[in-house]
Amino acid sequence: DVKVTQSSRYLVKRTGEKVFLECVQDMDHENMFWYRQDPGLGLRLIYFSYDVKMKEKGDIPEGYSVSREKKERFSLILESASTNQTSMYLCASSLTGGGGYNEQFFGPGTRLTVL
Amino acid sequence: AQTVTQSQPEMSVQEAETVTLSCTYDTSESDYYLFWYKQPPSRQMILVIRQEAYKQQNATENRFSVNFQKAAKSFSLKISDSQLGDAAMYFCAYNSGGYNKLIFGAGTRLAVHP
Questions:
Q1: How far apart are CA B31 and CA B55, in angstroms?
Q2: B42 falls in which pLDDT band (50, 70, 90)?
Q3: Alpha-carbon distance A18 to A39, whole Å?
Q4: Torsion sign across C-alpha atoms A73, B88, B77, B75
Q5: Which chain B residues are Cβ-neighbours of A35 within 8 angstroms?
Q6: Average pLDDT, consecutive stretches of 10 residues, N- to C-terminus, chain A (115 residues)
Q7: Which residues have C-beta within 8 Å of that of residue B55, sequence separation ≥ 6?
Q8: B65 Cβ partners below 8 Å, 6+ apart?
Q9: Can you tell me the distance from the alpha carbon of A7 to that of B55, in angstroms, rounded to the nearest whole number?
Q10: B32 touches chain A (CB under 8 A)
Q11: Which residue in chain B has the smallest CA separation from A2?
Q12: Taking the mean position of all CA atoms in its chain, how far away is CA B89?
């Protein structure tokens, strides 16, 4: 069974704090993704990584950074949290290749509230 | 750029009835994949069904089937014999390959009434 885990289900932080969200997958997937999910907007891609130490910006990277030092772990960093970053954050992983066939496997999500 | 549109924010269905969720997309590519994902309340998102664009036959997975109209860029999901456990957010997604990036629609919240 593919398992993608996220470090916290719920997180409350203050404006200006540095926030780390961690994601771990146990299926040796090359690709990992960070999304934010907002009502009426669906899931929007923040960053993704296709290999260790490799990262690419998604559609909404502003205010975020990522780190992938090990294949199984992909971290999302909010350098200085702001209230407009209050959201649900979803991590996902997938095999590479497949021409688009490969499904993404999702973590349970972290609901982040920035006060 | 590719876009995915789900025009029904909410739908409801009676248990044992059939419901169809709509999805349209925009792309200039000819080869791609389309997905329906399900996100139950407080649970992880899971794949429901996928469709390869070059296959004319509609995909089916048990009670779930799609109506894929490539020319119309339409990809609807039909749930037959609806069950209480089908209540969830349903997301339509597009993937053109590469790094397997997905482009999601806004989602449709499905309620199932006993």
A1: 10
A2: confident
A3: 25
A4: negative
A5: 104
A6: 88 97 95 95 95 93 97 97 97 84 92 97
A7: none
A8: B49, B58, B59, B77, B78, B80
A9: 39
A10: yes
A11: B46
A12: 10
The residues, ordered by sequence, that sit 6+ positions from B66 with a Cβ below 8 Å of its Cβ are B34, B36, B49, B51, B58, B59, B60, B75, B76, B77, B78
Angle at B86 between CA B76 and CA B33, to 5 degrees: 35
Residues of B in contact with A31 (CB under 8 A): 99-100
pLDDT tens, residue by residue, B55-112: 889 999 999 999 999 999 999 999 999 999 999 999 999 997 777 889 999 999 999 9
Helix (H) or strand (E) run with residue A93 in it: strand A87-94
Let me know how many helices (H) and strands (E) chain A has, helices first: 0, 11
> Does A100 contact B46 at a Cβ distance shorter than 8 Å?
no
